[in-house]
Design goal:
By secondary structure, the chain is α/β, with parallel strands linked by helices. It starts with a strand and ends with a helix. The chain has 10 helices and 10 strands. The relative contact order is 0.17. The protein has 2 domains: 166 residues, Rossmann fold, CATH 3.40.50.300; 79 residues, no CATH class. Helix 7 runs parallel beside helix 8. Strands 6-7-8-3-9-10 form a 6-stranded mixed sheet, with helices on both faces. A 4-stranded antiparallel sheet has the order 2-1-4-5, covered by helices on one side. Bound molecules: adenosine-5'-triphosphate and magnesium ion. The site of adenosine-5'-triphosphate (ATP) has 12 residues, from strand 2 and helix 1.
Length: 257
């Protein structure tokens, strides 16, 4: 399988805090890879480094075999890495549809000037991004929210909207940071089905999630972080039976739930 995203020997220090230590990870074409581990293990930090929000202390990040280190976040997004945030970030005063269009707008080739003077090509692209945004809202099951302001949406629909916006970038790899947080069991099942559809539509997925039934049901491969280090990687059943993982995380999760 082609490796779309590779994280090589990644170390991230914040002052004295070692958030990641020599971590190796990858996401292959056509897979749902999961990244799990206790609070503070470094999962979100991986997303922040690979998307260019932080410069790592050591190591490299390759997208399609090319390093993206030092590139700006929006450039990395355009190269094929789109993400959602653990704490939802939407344009609250824009409608749901407009939020998704901001994702696809950055794919347009016409650019700002063309949009302002309204060339026919930019008009074409505008209606294209409009219809594509509507399709994505429909795909995420929130087309009835299209004209509503993002800040007025129920929490779960805001999470779905963030995924729609990330998909509008047509990423090679979609990074989801705790997409099921706050969902009820039924919503989690539906979200799991949607994530599988996203993978089947040709997007690779890297999923951070604390809900183990969701992770184990939909993931092709699971990597486990603990105190900034990768302690295991394997299929869901290998991970569920790994004593190190049980001691560091799964035992604790099971007791808590
Ligand atoms: N900008 C920052 N400055 C200083 N320390 C940071 C920063 N970002 C993360 N950290 C630290 O790095 C460690 C890993 O944090 P991170 O947010 O990646 O954990 P996580 O695995 O996503 O946890 P959770 O499951 O709670 O979301 C923590 O000790 C955190 O305090
Ligand atoms: Mg996190």
């Amino acid at each position: 399988m082609t490796k779309l995203l590779e994280v090589n020997n990644l170390t991230m220090e914040f002052g004295g805090v070692v958030a990641l230590k020599e971590v190796n990870l990858h996401v292959s074409a056509g897979e749902i890879a999961a990244l799990i581990g206790p609070n503070g293990a470094g999962k979100t930090t991986v997303f922040n480094v690979v998307t260019g929000y932080y410069q790592p202390t050591k190591g490299d990040v390759l997208l399609n075999s090319k390093s993206v280190l030092g590139l700006k976040s929006n450039k990395i997004a355009r190269l094929g890495l789109a993400r959602t945030f653990q704490n939802i970030r939407l344009f609250g005063d824009m409608t749901a549809l407009e939020n998704v269009m901001t994702g696809s707008d950055s794919r347009n080739k016409v650019g700002l000037v063309g949009s302002i003077i309204g060339t026919s090509r930019s008009r074409q692209e505008e209606s294209l991004s409009h219809s594509r945004a509507a399709e994505l809202l429909n795909f995420m099951g929130i087309s009835h929210r299209s004209g509503q302001l993002a800040r007025n949406l129920p929490y779960g629909d805001q999470r779905r909207l963030e995924i729609a916006r990330a998909l509008a970038l047509e990423p090679k790899v979609l990074l989801l940071d705790e997409p099921a947080a706050g969902f009820n069991p039924q919503e989690k099942v539906e979200l799991g089905e949607l994530i599988k559809k996203i993978r089947d539509a040709g997007f690779a997925v890297l999923l951070i999630e604390h809900d183990m039934s969701l992770v184990m049901k939909i993931s092709d491969r699971v990597s486990v972080l603990d105190f900034g280090q990768k302690i295991a990687e394997g299929t869901p059943s290998e991970i569920q039976n790994n004593q190190k993982v049980i001691d560091a995380y799964l035992g604790v999760v099971d007791n808590a739930s």
